[in-house]
């Protein structure tokens, strides 16, 4: 399976996917940490994370897959939402909570 197929499988398999630097327990950059906090504060309980630092091939190809150059990258229901700034803006506008509730069926 190619790396692009692996990325596609991740975003199809999980309704909420955050490709980030590090793990939820140990974020390795401030942007990943802020996006994760916004998601948690918005009620994300079924969040799947992928540590791009563990897979250099995935890290190199995700920007090509998503047409988004930076990390983290948030996908909801297979669609790229954006990075840290967009995630935080959606949280602050309360839109992220609404989207997460719909996605998690709450």
From TrEMBL:
PROSITE patterns linked: GLUTAREDOXIN_2
Residue positions binding [2Fe-2S] cluster = 29
**Superkingdom, according to UniProt?**
Bacteria
UniProt keywords (A-Z) are: 2Fe-2S, Iron, Iron-sulfur, Metal-binding, Redox-active center
**Annotated Glutaredoxin domain residues:** 17-81
Q: Which GO terms describe its molecular function?
A: 2 iron, 2 sulfur cluster binding; disulfide oxidoreductase activity; metal ion binding
Signal peptide region: none
Indicate whether Transmembrane appears among the record's keywords: no
**What SUPFAM superfamilies would the database entry show?**
Thioredoxin-like (SSF52833)
**Binding residues for glutathione:** 21, 59, 71, 84-85
Q: Does the keyword Iron-sulfur apply?
A: yes
The record's comment on protein family reads: Belongs to the glutaredoxin family. Monothiol subfamily.
Name the record gives this protein: Glutaredoxin
| Lineage of source species | Bacteria, Pseudomonadati, Pseudomonadota, Gammaproteobacteria, Lysobacterales
Gene name of the record: grxD
